[in-house]
Amino acid sequence: MATAEQLKALVRSYAEGDQAQFLSVAMQVAAHAARQGHARLAQELRSLVDQVKSRGEMAPRRLEPPTPLAQPRGELSGLLSVSYPDTRLNEMVLQPAVRERLERVLREQQQAHKLREHGLRPRHRMLLVGPPGSGKTMTAAALAGETQLPLFTILLDGLITRFMGETAAKLRLVFDAIRSTRGVYLFDEFDAIGGHRSASNDVGEIRRVLNSFLQFLEQDQSDSLIIAATNHPELLDHALFRRFDDVVEYNTPSGELATRTILAKLGSFSSEDLDWKLLSKAVKGLSYAELARACNDAIKEAILDDKSSVTTQSLLRAFDERRSTRRS
């Protein structure tokens, strides 16, 4: 029979989607069984491994998403919305420093058992800051997709109330869910609850809410990923920044990142005749989301005009429209 270490190695390699390691450990189990006199079991295991190898390399099995809170009940139904994104990090055009930090979070999450064996915890509390449309919300979806966890978005209109003490009580329910059901929990527009406690328009309730959040975050020992995102980091209370494992700053794309974003969105509708010198000037200040929508607009125009690619002029018009939409 398999040793305890072999059983643990099998589970770990399965959880990490490492098929080569899984089959290697299975062969070790077969060899161990043979040494223990279980010749028939050893032969059956070897035959099963040979059958898998003969079919060629298979894609890692995608685990079915967990569903404990697929339909949040009671008060939670007004505090959380749930989805199961299939977004991946490699689908995003990111600054190298941002990508490196996100990949580090994923690596720690995917190999958390190694860290825990040494009394350490993986990164699981992140603050994302940057302008609208720069990829913060998509990052939460990508982390959920990569870890195959549900994405729970906290509904601020259900969380924040005008009754004294009620918001903090609801916040406790959210952190109870974070502890009981592993997932990626997104606090979008975080400045709504994380604003300065010394703000001139504060009547005391925001201080209680923020103090409660800080306390819950400090006490959190869950396996969930907690992500807070804001377009206005200058509004956040300074005490928040040191409570997060990572503070990741996003910017609007420029130069090569803008070019890569446009090419990725145009896909087969891209053209070698595009004037990148003109386009690089026109995209200045536009977010990733605005670039994506502008590219979609240009593609629609090409389709309706029965063209196989977009033109520089159609992209310039789309960029201008996105900029004017923002002003209005």
Q: Could you explain how this protein is built, in words?
A:
The protein has 15 helices and 6 strands. It is of the alpha/beta class and 328 residues long. The protein has 3 domains: 4-54, no CATH class; 74-249, Rossmann fold (3-Layer(aba) Sandwich), CATH 3.40.50.300; 256-327, Helicase, Ruva Protein, domain 3. Helix 1 (4-15) runs antiparallel to helix 2, helix 2 (19-35) packs antiparallel against helix 3 (39-54) and helix 12 runs parallel beside helix 14 (288-304). It is flat, with a radius of gyration of 25 Å. The N and C termini lie far apart (71 Å).
Task: Describe the secondary structure blueprint for this structure.
Layout: H1 4-15, H2 19-35, H3 39-54, E1 80-83, H4 96-110, H5 112-116, E2 125-129, H6 136-147, E3 151-154, H7 156-159, H8 166-180, E4 184-187, H9 191-194, H10 205-219, E5 225-230, H11 238-241, E6 246-249, H12 256-266, H13 276-282, H14 288-304, H15 312-327
Parallel strand pairs: 2-5, 2-6, 3-4, 4-5
Antiparallel strand pairs: 1-3
Helix pairs in contact: 1-2, 2-3, 4-6, 8-10, 12-14, 13-15, 14-15
